[in-house]
Each structure stands twice: as structure tokens, then as C-alpha cells.
Amino acid sequence: MTQKATAVEGWVELTCAFCQGRGRDPFGLLSALSTCGACRGAGKVQVKEPHTPCRACGGSGIQPFTRLTCLGCDGKGVQTIQEPTEACPVCKGTGFDGLHLYCLRCHGAGVIIAKAADS
Ligand SMILES: [Zn+2]
Ligand SMILES: [Zn+2]
Ligand SMILES: [Zn+2]
User: Which residues have a beta carbon within 5 Å of ligand 1, which is an ion?
Assistant: First the structure.
């Protein structure tokens, strides 16, 4: 890993999809006052740009058929995918590979980083 440290630039603050900004677990699994697991109660999440809606949860941040945060986006409802992007070849952009809760190739985003075009 030789990633350079990136500046705070490029990050945006979005309303937490999982709790819709309320900061509480929308399902109140432990208690009605449980803190939202996606934003830790802040009601906002930090997302690095460029981001794309998470297909695995339809942008809701909720893992389908469960009351847990989406595994693809951690409850944020969006995922960061560096541009240029292309449709995921495994799930064809749906975010589901038919075997798992979300497509493992694209993490449920439906898109992946496009490979450099052949010249
Ligand atoms: Zn939240
Ligand atoms: Zn998601
Ligand atoms: Zn995929």
C-alpha cells in the first residue's frame, strides 16, 4: 500500500441514509433511543467524492430483508467509486449477483472503476 494521504478536500457531508438524519436506529433494535450505527448518532456521514447511489440498498442504507445497515455502503446509501466508472460485469449494474446480499465484485454499487481503454 503506497497510497498518498489525501486531503480533506473531496469529502462531502450527507444526511445519513440509514436514519435519515435523525441519528437514531430507525428500527430501535435495542431501544427506541439506540444510536444509529451508520452515523453514530451524528445524523450525517462523510462521503468521499465521487460517489454513486448504492444499488444494494437502493440508497436507503438498509440491507434488504434485514434491519441492519447495508454491507455495501455501511448505511450511507452511497458508495465512493473513482471515475471513470463502468457497469459491473458481474451484476450488470443491479448491485446483486444473485448469490449474496450484494454483488461482491462491485460491493453493490452496480458500477466499478473502468479499466483504461485499450488503444
Ligand atoms: Zn444515521
Ligand atoms: Zn447500500
Ligand atoms: Zn456488481
Answer: 16, 18-19, 36, 38-39
Whole-number pLDDT of residue 7:
54
Whether the pLDDT of residue 85 is over 60: the answer is: yes
- Report how far ligand 3's centroid is from the alpha carbon of 87 (Å): 8
Gap between the Cα atoms of 90 and 94, Å rounded: 9
The Cα–Cα gap between 40 and 105 comes to: 27
Given a contact cutoff of 8 angstroms between Cβ atoms, the answer to whether 24 and 34 are in contact is yes
H helix and E strand count, the chain = 0, 6
Task: Report CA-CA distances (Å) from 53 to 29, 59, 70, 119.
Answer: 26, 5, 12, 31
Instruction: State the Cα–Cα distance between residues 21 and 89, nearest whole angstrom.
Output: 34
**Whether the predicted pLDDT of 4 surpasses 70:** no
CB 44 within 8 A of CB 21: yes
Q: What's the predicted TM-score (pTM) here? A: 0.84
Q: What is the average pLDDT score of the chain? A: 91
